[in-house]
Amino acid sequence: QDYLDVTSESRFDSEFVFQNETEANKAVLGAYELLRSSTGIHSNNLFYDQICVQSDIEVAPEPPAFGGRYTPMNCYNATPQLSDIPITSWNGMYTLINRCNIIIEAFESNDVFVNLNKTSPSGLGHLYGETVALRATMYYELTRCWGDVIYSLLPITSKEDYEGLSLT
Asked: Running DSSP on this structure, what letter comes out for residue 150?
């Protein structure tokens, strides 16, 4: 009967992942992939709609017939007939923040990382620092574009985790 009780080789718990640099690096790279694919801050999404607004240095102004991509109010637009890129970026940044919170909590609860000498450089310490910096970058981008935002340093895994959170 023990033969039938096996764990999937495609699933790893945080104790395994965050005990060595190679596996922890894979988790952090997954966070960087979210930065690339869903936040829109350094691609032709939020950067184009909000950061370059009326800037003749990064891009040339467009006539209104092209949909008003340089209108700052597009950041607050949730109607489907206009740009939905800023809302997608908002969701993408919070998805990345939550992923970073999960990774940071996993580091901080792992015995190998807890017992690590924090006074000298290490691969695990570096990856932890990258994750903290990545989360801080997302909060910077959120406040730069929207002002006061919801701030949480804890992973959100259920509705109860985010109820009661408010603007900071």
From this structure: B
